[in-house]
Every structure is written in structure tokens, then in C-alpha cells.
Amino acid sequence: MNSANRSIDIALLLGFAGLLLVPWYHIRSGFFGFDWIGDMLSDPRLWPGLGQIADGRLQLLPVLLLLGFALWLRRSAPGPARGRLLLVLGAAGLGWMIAEGFAIGLRGWSLPLEPLLGAIEGQPAFGAGAVLALLSFSGLFAFGLAERGALRGDGFVLGAIVLLVLLVSAFVAYPILAMFAGAFQDFRGNFTTDGIAANILDPAIWSLGCLSGGGCGVAWRTLFLALCTATGSTLLGLVFALAATRTAMPFKKGLRLLTVLPIITPPFVIGLALTMVMGRAGFVTELLESLTGQELGRWIYGLPGIWIAQVLSFTPISFLVLIGVVEGVSPSMEEASQTLRANRWRTFRRVSLPLMAPGLANAFLIGFIESMADFGNPLILGGNGGVLSTEIFFAVVGAQHDPSRAAVLAIILLCFTLSAFLAQRFWLAGRNFATVSGKGDGGRHAELPLVLGGLVVGIAVLWSLFTLFIYGMILFGGFAKVWGLDHTLTLEHYARAFSVSLEHGFTGVAWNSFWTTMGIALAAAPLTAAVGLLTAWLIVRQRFPGKSVFEFSLMMSFAIPGTVIGISYVMAYNLPPLQMTGSALILIFCFVFRNMPVGVRGGVAAMSQIDSSLDEASLTLGANSARTLRRVILPLLKPAILAALVYSFVRAITSISAVIFLVSAKYNMATAYIVGLVENGEYGIAIAYSSALILVMITVIGGFQLLIGERRLRRRAEDGRKVHNIEAREISA
Amino acid sequence: MKHTYLLAGLAAGLAPGIAAADELNLICSADIVICELLVERFEEGHDIDVNMVRLSSGEAYAKLRAEARNPQTDLWWAGSGDPHLQAANDKLTHPYESARLSELHDWAVTQAENAEYRTVGVYSGALGWGYNTEILAAKGIEPPKCWADLTDPSLKGEIQIADPNSSGTAYTALATLVQLMGEDEAFAYLAELGANVSQYTKSGSAPVKAAARGETGIGIVFMHDAVAQADEGFPIEVVAPCEGTGYEVGSMSIIDGAYNLEAAKTFYDWALSAEAQNLMPEARSFQLPSNRAAVASEKAPALEDIKLIDYDFAEYGKTDVRQRLLDRWSKEIGAAF
């Protein structure tokens, strides 16, 4: 009872703080600058909610009344009756604030209500005070539900669900709906189906001309590329996984490092290096030409080049997914097969390989989705026509300026990725691949057949050398005076980017975007991990209505290409009630909700392995669910937390397609800056900057890795493998 | 600009209530070097804090349109004139007649008049191409001097030009050829040219960068982009087509509804001065400045050597004309590729 009242006290405290203490409305110079403290009394725009009401903004009066009513309710006895009142009150508060926020814009009514209600003064977007009031109402709503006995009356769980549903609706569903609406609008906002009609059947998208010797539409080209990339990266990933676990290949530890590199490489860099090595004037091409006497010319541009670059980039991810699965195949199954006189080859083909099917399917799916969403490589190596992701980008920023085309292409892309996802689900459903059980499972894995073993090691070594060579070129590119012309070694690029002087501080041109990037990435990483793991906990451990819809809408933000996310964020958050464009917040929110699904999947995987009897024990012993989460679940999830932190940190630094629309004059990100350099042909400094970013990320990941490593020491080998497995899934997803 | 994000946050947190210097949010659509130099010099002479982001002119226009009802940007400097005119058409930009208009070349003023003073020319550059001397010499090809030479079968696979659907440069080329030859003739010519084109790139200046690095023989671009590659030391020779050629007017616009209108006007006036425009050679930008008193880089292609057509920016900047030409290009040229 006390605890029920305490929760309500906190919610009320938040609400009244919003009404009395902090500015109600959005502040242009930013809330966290705290400039407003000094000017608060003199400037009516900075007044809190109560002041705004006194100033004539009567639309806020219901907020005050509802909160006052809640304060009065607080004194009555807890119980279902009070619960219902709180529930209604919270819902009314939320509903009213959203309605008035959308109805009254910067310059008066945004909805056509003027003839009905007369003219009204405009209002800015929600600020800190309004956000506190929203939190307060959602808290009252959740605690009302709890008092009525929903979900065993667990206020914490209900609060978390309400909060997450609000966040996901505001930052995932709302912008995506805005994008779909964009397909039916001209840019002034009028409804039209012209754009859709003109684009949906466009032969440039759907032509099958390549079957009869012409060129194919961009949809088929992208699909073909994605299938090739997924096949290539899955096979190579399998080769690496086999080489690492079942052969006597040297330098296995080094493989781990190679797997990290592509994940932390900023976009464009691999594509650039490939053109330098294998472009028409690249020395590999020249070498091949002089050996064969054939003119190869520009073979790297177009699908072959993108394919090589993507396989280079995504093989490590597929390796991380597969190594856990390859290790997980039970040795006793293989031993049984050999005891029954199957030879090594037969054992591998009929026993080991089928048991790896879920891993292979997962790796394939990831390769497919990554290839579909890849933007940097096709941009550099695209040749003619491009792929869906680049077409979307140029439909928005190109000379056409056709957002409805972008929306149509985005929907096609989304259909491809979602069908792949469903196909994989369908294929794996109803089969049992479990070989890891609690029973003792000794023995060693069967050796590979000799020929296969040799092949596997051969391919693994060659590909590793190729990767190392490409990265060597990248590193070298930062020191070469003019890459591709004058290869004199110089520090000039690094000096221009990162010079520091005692007098003027950080004088290099890169510092500005570098600090912004670091600040935003470091702010986004813990938030992503927290929101992601909380969501995972709700999905795995709690049952609530609408759970599957909730899960699905989370998936969406990951499957939608970044360009579309970027544009839809700008459209959704440029106007009241939520206004974040031009701030650092919009970047942080974009990263949090774009990368959160990875934290969720990692968390779900990790939590499924923790027996729920542990939570039950804790609950039985009298701890509430918040305490159980904090003291029991979280400590067991340490590796998943760290992996989510690493992933979101790295993605915040390397992602580009969404970011390019969200950066502003004040908050510019490193990748957007690097793209500008590449566009202007300043390859040297672009590569120097990228190399520096890679080093920074290795350092940070190294720190995280140390922590994960410590964790592993205290576990048995079996657990160590599970941990590693989870990590792989997280990084890859 | 000097303040880092973290330090600025800290400083602001520690010292509440201190009046901040005026602010200006600037989108710069030119080369990053000149963008940074301009901002640095402007901040030296004015008590205005400039936040600058570099976006290509297409990206900038898309951003301005998305933010139309609540703009976050005050001023948009540089980038080809076409999207500036479109923005003016859409009333996304703010009319302003600078006192310095009288100091400008006619083409810069015409640009302003076409847009009802919602934009103004800051530099111009003519269309042409750069060829890689080594490749053409090795293949024994006579360097092309005229548009007509580019269809010579010996140049098969050696030419790159951008896709007009994605690049303003290539749209300028398309409109130029239409004005030079007539529409049907221009498309017949482009179809012939297409036989020699190895790739329609996405970015406007990419063709000459490819030519510089030996990836292709000839890149059709704005001549100042070709000069920049030659100036880096690449074996690039710049050509102005003998039949005549079109040009772009790099422009500047104040955004409608800008929060820092006064600061934007200050920068606007300053950017039109000879003093500011004289910075361009220093940043190795080879366009021709719009202020009559400003001096272009001596490496910039001399106007006397270029035969300019009377490019009709108003007509070819119209949305329906553009859409018709682009559709036709996609059907006849792009699809046939």
C-alpha cells in the first residue's frame, strides 16, 4: 500500500515540477545549455506551465485540473475504485496533451478549428515541462492499471510497458507512418496518387530485360546482388568457422581481430580502397592485364565490385554467427556417425552440415539484409543504375526530388527484407536442431575430410591476406600525398585533420565533428542498451496484450533503410508538438531507436538462457520485479549489456545514410563530414580521418572486450561458448 | 566553430545567463576547403558565431524542403543555381536586395531578378570536359575539341558524365545541349554519345575525378572541377567545347523564416564583397567570382576562350520543363544503356 502511494507521489512530483519549475515549452537554444535559468523570470517564453496558463494559454488548464484531481485522489484509500479513476485520469491527460499539441502549431491552429473556436495564439513545441507532465500522466495511467490488479498489480512492469509503448509509438511508428503518408503527398502536403501511380509499375524498377540481353530493373538487380552477397558471405563465413574450429590452421587468434575490422570501418572506405587496387588503373588490374593480355578495363564497377566489397564487409559477421553454431554441433552425434562406419566426408555432409542449418539460415538472412541496406559501397562502386538504397537516396536528393518515388522504393525494399525474414522463420519452424543439452557431452569434433580441410584452410588464408592487404592500402592511403598519383609519404593529411595548438586549442578541421560524434555516440550507447534490454525483458518475461504488434514495430525500424528514416525524422520532428531538428537530441534518438532492435535481440537470446525459476525465486523471497531485474537479471546479462553498448557506440560512429539528413550546422557528424570530403575528392584526409576513427573504436571496444573477457574467466567452458554465441548474434543482427 | 560540442556544453552549463554572440546557421554546398575558409575569415571580422554544415546542393534542397514549415537554417551559400531557383519557386527562400547588387556581374544580377531577389549569383563556371592526356596519348586518340568530336567511335567506353536524374551538373549539360541543338537533335546526339559512355555517375564531378585517376579517358563536368584535378597534379587537360557551352551560376539564398535574419544578411552582404570572393583562389576554387572587382584564380579558365550560350535559367529551371526532359532522358538514353 505504501509502495503504491509512493509511486503515485513520484508521478505527481514529476507533473508538478513540469507545471511549476521548468520551462513548459521547447527552448530554441536547447534545454541542456541551461541558459534559461537566468532569464526565466523575465522571458514569458521560458515560463513553466502555470505561468503559461496565467499568460492566457488556456489549453494547458486541463493539465493543471487533472493533476490537481490526482493530488486529491492520492488521499483516498488505494483500491480498484481509485485505480479506475487514476487510469481514466492518466489517459485523459495523455490524450488531451497530444490533442492540443497537434491542434495548435507555431502560428495558431494547425487543425481547421478556427471557424469553430476562434483565433488562437500559436505555441512552441513540447519542452521539458510538457515532457515531465506526459511522464506523470503515463505513470498515473500505469499505476491506476496496477491498482486495478492488471498483471498481478505490478506497477513497475506496467510503468515500463506504458513508457516503452509511448516511446516506440513516438519514435518508430510515427515517423514510419509519416513516410508511408509521404507516398501519397506532393511536397506541399496535398493528397495525390500520381506519384504512386507513376512509380509503382515503372519499368526502371521492374524490367526483366536482362533475361533477353538488356538491362534489368533496379529491384531485381538489388535482389540478385543481395542473394549473391548472402551466399558468398555465408559460404566464406562457414569456411572461416570450420578453419577456426576444426583444422590446425595457424594464427586462429588473429582471425578474431579480422572479424572486428569491417564492423568498425566507416562507409566508403572499403569501396575506395577497392577502386584503387582493382579499378582500371589499379595495379591488380594492370598486373592481370599484362599477364593475360586481355583488357579488363572497368570490371570492378557495377555488381562485381559491390559484391566483392560487400562480401569483404559482411563475411566477418557471418563468421561470428556461424562459429557458435559450428562449435555447438554435438561431437557425440558425429562420433556416433563414425562408429556406424560412415567416413569423414559422409559424416560431415549428412550429420554436421544439416545440424548447422539454423546458423546457415541466420547468416544468410543477415547477409541478405545487410546487402539490401548497404549504402556506402554501391555509392562508390555502383556503376550504372545503382541499387535500391542508392536509388532511394537520389530520388530524395537528386535532380528529380521525388519523395513519392523514394517511398515506393523504400516499400519495395522493406517487402524484400521482410519476406526474407518470414521465409527463414517458415523454413526453420517445426524443426529441432537442439544438440546442446544439460547432459555431459564430451568428445571431440570430427576432423574435416582431408581435401575439404585443405580447401578450407587455403581459402581462409587467401581471403585473410586479401582483407589485410585492403586494410593495409587504407592505412597507407592516409599517408600518401595524393592517392593514385603521388605516393610520397606525408603526415600532411593527419596534420590538417587533427592539428592541436597551445594557443588556439584544437585547430584541425576534423575536431569539431569528432567531438560531436564522440559525445553523441557516448550518449546514445547506454540509452540504447538500457531501452533494448528493458524491452527484451518485457518480451521474454511478461505477457501483455499487443505484445506481438509491439515486437513487430520494433523490427521495422531496423529493416527500413537509413535514408528513409533520416527524411521521415526530419519531417516528423520539425514541427510542434515534438521539435528536435537541428539539435543533438534528434541524432541520439535516431541512433537509440535504430540500434535498439539489436539490443533487444541480444537481450532476448541471453534471457532465454536464464531459467525463469531464478526470477521466481527472487519474487517468492519478497523482492519486487524492479529489484529482481536489478539484482538478479542484470548481473547475469552483463555480456549482453556490454555487447549492446559496443554495437550502438560503433554504429553511431559509422552509420551514414540516416545521419546525412539529421546533421545540422551545429551538430555535424564524422561520417557526414567524411562523405563531403570524398565527394570533393579529398581522399587523403578522408582516409586519414577514417583510420583515426578506426583506432578510436578499437580502443573503446578493447576496453569493453576486456570486461567481457573477465566475465568469461569465471564461467565454465560451456557457458563461455554461449556467451560468445550471443555476442555473435548481437553484432550480426 | 572553435568550440567543441562538449566544451560548449560545459561552458554554457557553468555560466548561465551570459548573453551569447549572434548565431548563424549556414549550409555550404561548395568544396569543404572554401567553406571552412569563408567561415573562418567571416568570424574574424564579425561578432557572429557561424555553425556550418557542408551538404551537396541536392541534399541541401531536400533538407530545406523537409524543414519548410519551421526552418533550422538561416543561409545557404553556393551550390549550382538550379536548386536555388527551385527553392525560390517554392518560396522557401527570402527576398533580399543587397546593397552590393550594383557591384556584381550581369549574370549574377539576372539570377537574382529571375528569382525575384530570393537568390543571387556568387560565382559561375562553364561546362566543358577534362581528358586524361596519358590515356588518350596511349590510345593514339586526337583530343576532342567540340561536342561533335565526343561521338567519335574511337572514344568508345572512354567517356563519363553524370546521370541528370541525380546530378545538377548533368542536368545543366542536358539543358545546354537542348538549347544548343534543339531538343530532338540533342537527344539524337545524346543517344550517339551514349555509345561511348562507360558510366553515368551519380555525382556531378565524379567523371573528372575518374579521369584524373585513369579510370576513364574523358569526364564531362564543370570546367573548374577539371581545373582542380589538373591543379592537384593529375594529367588532366581542360577543354571548352568549340560549339559553345552552358554554365551554372552558383548562388546564395537566405532561408524564408530564418531565425537569425540579420546575421544572415550580414553574411550575405559580406559574401558578395570582392574581399570575400578573393578568398576563392586561396582555397583552390576555380570558379569565376560574381563581384566585378574580385579577381579569379589565374588558373581559372579564361572567359575569352569560352563561347558561352545565352542559357535560359528561367525556362530550364521550371519544374515541368525539367520533369519532361528528365523523363525523356530516362526513357531514351538511360533505359537504352
TrEMBL record, chain A:
It comes from the Bacteria. Its main location: membrane. GO terms for cellular component: plasma membrane. The keyword Transport applies. The keyword Magnesium does not apply. SUPFAM superfamilies: MetI-like (SSF161098). It is a multi-pass membrane protein. Pfam families: BPD_transp_1 (PF00528). Residues 219-424, 514-706 form the ABC transmembrane type-1 domain. It is found in: Cell membrane. Gene3D superfamilies: MetI-like. GO terms for biological process: transmembrane transport. Belongs to the binding-protein-dependent transport system permease family. This is Iron(III) transport system permease protein. The lineage of its organism: Bacteria, Pseudomonadati, Pseudomonadota, Alphaproteobacteria, Rhodobacterales.
Automatic annotation (TrEMBL), chain B:
Keywords: Signal. GO terms for biological process: thiamine transport. Residues 1-21 form the signal peptide. One of its GO terms (cellular component) is outer membrane-bounded periplasmic space. Coiled coil: none annotated. GO terms for molecular function: thiamine binding; thiamine pyrophosphate binding. Pfam families: SBP_bac_6. This is Iron(III) transport system substrate-binding protein. It comes from Alloyangia pacifica.
